Amino acid sequence: MMKKMHEKAGNSPSSVPVKTASQTDQHSAFIAGGGEMGQLIRDYDWSLTPVGVFECWPQSLRTTIRLMLNTNHPIFVFWGESLICFYNDAYRATMGPELHPKALGAKGRDVWGEIWHIIEPEVALVMAGQGAIWNEQKLMPITRHGKVENSWWTYSSSPIDDEFAPNGVGGILVICTDVTAQKKATDALKLEQERLMGLFKQAPGFIAVLYGPEHVFNIANDAYTQLVGGRNILGLSLRAALPELEGQGFYELLDQVYASGEPFIGEDVPIVLDIEPDLRETRYLSFIYQPIRDESGQVIGIFVEGHDNTHSKLIEIQLRETLEKNSAIIENSKDLICVFDHSGHFVSINNKSANILGYEPAEMQTRHYAEFLVKEDVEDSVQIFSGVLGGTPIADFENRYLHKDGHVVHILWSAVWVEEQKKLFAIGKDITDWLRAEELARQAQKSDIIGQLTGGMAHDFNNLLTIILGNAELLTEQLPQHSEQRMLANMIFKASERGADLTQRLLAFARRQSLTPSVVDIEKMLTELNTLLTRTLGENIEIDSSCEGSNLLAVVDVSQLENVILNLCLNARDALPNGGRIAVSAAHAYLDENYANNNVDVTAGHYIMICVSDSGIGIAPEHLSRVFEPFFTTKGVGHGTGLGLSMVIGFVKQSKGHVSIYSEVGHGTVVKLFLPRAADDEQKRDAASQDSAMALPVGGNETILLVEDNDLVREFAKTQLGLLGYRVISAENAHAALEIFQENTKIDLLFTDIIMPGGKNGRELADEVRSICPAMKVLYTSGYSSNAFAHDTQFGTHNLLLTKPYTRLELARNIRRALESAVGSRKG
């Protein structure tokens, strides 16, 4: 029997009455476990509440509390006429500090005062013996952490039987779930669906959904309804809704799409519509009929989407004669000459679009200029276009267009609106090359400024270090042999030596270090250096050293060059945490005028090229442009100064050479050093033969199949091969190349990249081609040396490989080398 007792301070909002050790009740054993709330309930002094001590609790309460504490589901219990509160750990997690732990043992009305008006009617019904109550997603504004929050709950309120209690109900078991997150997600989804439906209805293009073989209108947006004259077409078949289409081919076209499951795309298709009962108009529509399929793949309807291009089409027709009169002037212009309608669609454009943007005029006409813009430039361009429409001509507005091959083209525009013709006339000048030259000059200036700064810093530091080193050395000599002071002086000396090494690297970057250039036999130097590299790099690194050609004589400081190669090999080793192979090679190279014009501080001419490559982790694109900056490093703190590569480029530039770097994440890095070739007496006597050897070998009537996934590289190689006299057929991947090869075409050489996305790589492509034509000659190209493919057992050392980046001379020589190799050619 429950014992009524007066409620004391134990139920105050800030505290919970707890029994002392002497009051520990052995009868609480039936509620063992239950986590934090189990402990709080066992420690609670229930004698201060109407519930009374544990031994007085009825069995139904005991069972309910034990059930509550041993479940991970949120449960709350009201007990007795005062509705004393119990809850478990799972429910506690939903409460703020305002309620926990003071709610334990408190009266329900005191705990839930802010929502009592919501739950009191339900509590009364259950306590009156009216049975259980179920609620779904019920709103409960509850204070948590000092803030009232709307929360939604799904819960059941079930009576707890007690034969001695009024109405046979001793309390209420509340099993609940906080569904606030689900409720908000559901509401957000509903709003999004409404928003999308609103966008569908208001879309500028016409949209409709037709179902069944009769093409019954299920949905049509406002633009479609307006197109057909505002007719009520929903629920009608196409033939019933638009009978005037009889004989125009649209019924048959939709039947074909429905039967075949193949979409249809139409551009500027004329259609005659009854806009009004006595008004029939011809419209020009661009649209797509897209089949709709069910889960089994069966066509069940057709999605219709398109645009009414009538306005621009009529303008095009009206202006055609005028534009033809001026075509001679327009087509001979070096700039883009364009005519736009008031909405921004190309009415006409001269043939210069093919040279500047890669699109034929027909590909751009009737399309909006924003379709060709770089995304970030659309907003400003639209604003300027609107200003011109408003009567404000422009003379120097720059924006960026995307070339058809994907590269960015900078256009400088002049434009004016001619009200009489309702047209905007514009002239666009391609300033991409000018901006590139300006950027190259800016990079050179930046490099020079940083060099002056670092050189000045190194000079000043060297002055300071001279004093520190000298005095530290003097102190070391004068202090007793094993004294602590001598040890400290020696530490100063060693630290100063490290500082001197750092300033030497700064001077190298600034191109102000003291160099002693001489004629160096690079092949001999690499042979001698190989032992040092093997010992320094460790047992898990294999060094592959090779030289191509004779008289590899360069004018360079040999000791500094050895340091540079060692530095590059150490970087390569760090990129091979699990070991691997590093390739160091040397060869003659020629950098032409085109290469020199597109790179800072490069002089066209003959060089000795030293290449250091690895197949390691590679360098991220966002870091690649900064690797030569002083103090920039991707290594962790304490694992590099960031001066290694800046010292490399400084030394090579001071030696009147050039450095290039190529890298891809996960594949490796290639660094090429181009050093001035020595011009000794022997080489002068042989200059004529050397120049002849370095001349560009040109082609005859050979046909080359070029396979390259990078659009810019593919276009570059195609152009260069064409200039060399070859007929070039290009493909962007192995699949396209095989389709071309299987045609009855004479192909003399397959020139393919090795690493390509989308299935087959270059080696696999060559294997398949040679399975068809064993005599096919093949030249591979890649941004990695052959060392990078050492793991590929199918890629033999006999294969010809042209490493990227390559010059025009390197391309020409390797093409001829491949064509004149022992393997025969295919005569298709």
From TrEMBL:
Molecular function per GO: phosphorelay sensor kinase activity
Domain (Histidine kinase) ranges: 456-679
Domain PAS, chain residue ranges per copy: 322-392
Keyword terms: Phosphoprotein
UniProt KW Phosphoprotein keyword: yes
InterPro entries: CheY-like_superfamily, HATPase_C_sf, HATPase_dom, His_kinase_dom, HisK_dim/P_dom, HisK_dim/P_sf, PAS, PAS-like_dom_sf
Domain of life: Bacteria
Enzyme nomenclature, EC number: 2.7.13.3
PROSITE patterns from the UniProt entry: HIS_KIN, PAS, RESPONSE_REGULATORY
Pfam families: HATPase_c, HisKA, PAS_3, PAS_4, Response_reg
Biased composition (Polar residues): 11-22
Region span, Disordered: 1-22
Signal sequence bounds: none
Domain annotation Response regulatory: ranges: 703-819
Modified residue annotations for 4-aspartylphosphate: D753
Reaction(s) the record says it catalyses: ATP + protein L-histidine = ADP + protein N-phospho-L-histidine
Keyword Phosphoprotein on entry: yes
NCBIfam families per the UniProt record, alphabetical: sensory_box
Protein name: histidine kinase
Organism whose genome encodes this protein: Marinomonas profundi
Lineage: Bacteria, Pseudomonadati, Pseudomonadota, Gammaproteobacteria, Oceanospirillales
